[in-house]
TrEMBL record:
InterPro entries: ClpS, ClpS_core, Ribosomal_bL12_C/ClpS-like. It comes from Gemmobacter megaterium. Involved in the modulation of the specificity of the ClpAP-mediated ATP-dependent protein degradation. Residues 1-28 are annotated as: Disordered. The keyword Hydrolase applies. Belongs to the ClpS family. Keywords: Hydrolase, Protease. GO terms for molecular function: peptidase activity. This is ATP-dependent Clp protease adapter protein ClpS. Residues 30-108 form the Adaptor protein ClpS core domain. Residues 1-14 have a biased composition (Basic and acidic residues). The gene is clpS.
Amino acid sequence: MHEAWTMTDRKDGPGDDTSIVTKTRPKTQRPPLYKVLLLNDDYTPMEFVVHVLERFFGLSHAQAFEIMLTVHKKGLAVVGVFSFEVAETKVAQVMDFARRHQHPLQCTMEKE
Ligand code: TYC
């Protein structure tokens, strides 16, 4: 004869949750970042450096002056951290602008 089968016969019936919760950690790849560095020299005018920092790095006059003074005193400073392409563009813009104005200002980049 047919035997009735109800939920109450189940070992993991209602109220008895045996499901497993797993956490996945997707391996996301962040692009490497590059520091753009400004180097000190004895000839480039301070006002020119401040102008470069305002123009190409979007810094306020106060921020630009502060970084310029750090470079002047310490020899170099990190101006910003960017993706490879943006860092490369900033360095090229600064080097080109300095060369056109016949100042020896040097700007480089290095992997963070
Ligand atoms: N040392 C320069 C001067 O006395 C000023 C200067 C600051 C030059 C920062 C370059 O990246 C620099 N006129």
